[in-house]
Specification:
alpha+beta; two-stranded antiparallel sheet; 2 domains; binds flavin-adenine dinucleotide; 12% strand
Length: 234
């Protein structure tokens, strides 16, 4: 959510994810500052023409805050009509309840901090301009289709499993349906893990790499020979 203040904030200066609060962890909600690149932010502001230009010019006065939720819903990746896959996602009722609570919390916090306007990311809703309006968001009438969410850690689209009926690759990262094809990225994690995903992905990828090296020693020797000049030159 974006909140416009009177004083300049210049959110692009310094560390982007510099503040967070785990006060609402028990409710499954983590609050974080999440400044995005200004061109992305500007394009995401509501309005067209002069109204959008006015809002884009106000970006130096805007703070961006988000709520992280460890979702329990899931999506599907299916073959699409062309080369691109078709992705669908259905938000679970529990997650929608947390999103609704987060929107209210973030709006209240922004208004308490002196925001003039709060843009909620709920499609079709005007900006919030008072504490009463912020509190009223808890009861506002909207469903998941109107919530503009982002997924920072999409995982599990080719999940690892012991059984081909339950996953796409085995514990070595090898595809059940296409032996010889190995997958070593975030898609093999069995589910959304609810924490930053880079380290677990690197751990899984390293494990798969070691198993590949054990299994294909000649391939490893060739890869080492090919990489040697680059390693030698630093
Ligand atoms: C805004 C944002 C903030 C994040 N912050 C954090 C954080 O603070 N800490 C953390 O742990 N995680 C963070 N993450 C999550 C983390 O970045 C990802 O989980 C992780 O990078 C996924 O790794 P991956 O190897 O699965 O995929 P990626 O890192 O997405 O790598 C996929 C690679 O494949 C390439 N590729 C795609 N298609 C093709 C093709 N056809 N041919 C060849 N190459 C192709 C892409 O260019 C890319 O380099 C963040 C993610 C986002 C979006």
């Amino acid at each position: 959510m974006v909140a416009r203040f009177d004083e300049p904030i210049r959110g692009w200066d310094g560390a982007l994810q510099s503040v967070y609060s785990d006060h609402f962890d028990a409710d499954g909600i983590k609050l974080v500052s999440v400044y995005s690149p200004v061109n992305v932010l500007a394009a995401g502001m509501p309005g067209v023409g002069p109204a959008l230009r006015r809002r884009a010019r106000a970006l130096p006065f805007c703070g961006v805050f988000g709520a992280l939720i460890h979702d329990e819903g899931g999506g599907r990746v299916r073959p699409g009509p062309g080369r691109e896959p078709l992705l669908t996602y259905q938000m679970a009722p529990r997650d929608l309840a947390r999103v609704r609570r987060s929107v209210t919390l973030l709006a209240e916090i922004a208004m308490a901090a002196g925001a003039r306007e709060v843009f909620t990311s709920i499609f079709g809703f005007p900006p919030i301009t008072s504490m009463d309006q912020a509190r009223a968001m808890e009861r506002a009438d909207y469903d998941a289709r109107r919530v503009e969410c982002m997924a920072f850690h999409p995982l599990g689209s080719a999940r690892v499993a012991n059984d081909p009926r339950r996953g796409v690759v085995d514990q070595d990262g090898q595809s059940f349906e296409l032996p010889g094809l190995f997958v070593a990225d975030g898609s093999i994690l069995p589910t959304s893990i609810g924490v930053n995903s880079q380290l677990p992905i690197m751990a899984m990828a390293t494990r798969i790499a070691h198993r590949l090296a054990d299994r294909f020693p000649r391939l490893l020797a060739r890869a080492r020979a090919a990489a040697a000049p680059a390693i030698a030159s630093g």
